[in-house]
UniProtKB/TrEMBL annotation:
Keywords linked to the UniProt accession: Hydrolase
UniProt domain AB hydrolase-1: residue ranges: 86-193
UniProt-recorded name of the protein: Alpha/beta hydrolase
Highest rank taxon of the organism: Bacteria
GO molecular function: hydrolase activity
Keyword Repeat tagged: no
Lineage of source species: Bacteria, Pseudomonadati, Bacteroidota, Chitinophagia, Chitinophagales
Keyword Nucleotide-binding: no
Natural source organism: Chitinophaga agrisoli
Amino acid sequence: MQSQVLPFSLRVSAFMLSRLGKPFPGLTARMFLSMYSTPPKRKLRDSHLAVREHAVLEKAAFSRYPFDDRPLTLSIYRWGQSDKKILLLHGWGGSPFDFRQMITALTAAGYEVITFDAPAHGASQGRKTNLIQWMHIIEQLLQRTGPVHAIIGHSLGGLSAALTLVHKKVRVPRLVMVSAAVSAPVFFGETFQIFGIPEKVMPKVQQLVIRRLKQDLLQLDLFQHIDQIKADHIMVAYDETDSIVREQQIDSFLQQYPAITPLKIKGEGHFRIMKDPRVIEGVLEFIGK
């Protein structure tokens, strides 16, 4: 599952956390939160650079949190020009250019595509980031760009988009979540289980999140807000062979919210799903209705 995509250094850190958890739960919580706030670095491929060359680049400053006005400069990219704007949100450790096939299809269909390097990713500022900061950035960006026709988010980008539409004063006509977890607490719980971190550490993590980020971790769970996502129409695209986001969790979520349009495929996993022709065609059809 998650351990399959973590670099070796993080797996070593996780091993240490499993040993430190019982005698030092507070220290373990701080180390865990630091580890899961530091995205892995990656080098862009030639195919990524090619799509970046055709983008209009903008550098813009945003406040870091609702309680922290210090500026954070992010790189924003645009393709096409239209009154129908699409906001794309990449996942943890990801890049906007992972959407290259989707970007091509959207601009060919007449949409304007807007996306950005999340904090601590790509060419944007920052060393650490988190879901709560992403929600704040998304809210600010939507306020600046004006109405968007749809948001399409992959993985953590999908979860952050949905939670932004729950907790912030923004609304969109259409939301597409691709291979997105639907609960941060469940994701953390699975991580604890995978790496053998004692359960007594989790309350310490929750306290840290409240103290440092002014947000209750338990509120970052779409199961608790299943009918409060401020989007007129929602699609969830996922792969039953995904090794990061469990099929059973998505199935359970969809059963509780039958108004969501599901798109399930098999064989592409967590990352390749973004370029699968069935998904791209399904997304285009969904946002075009």
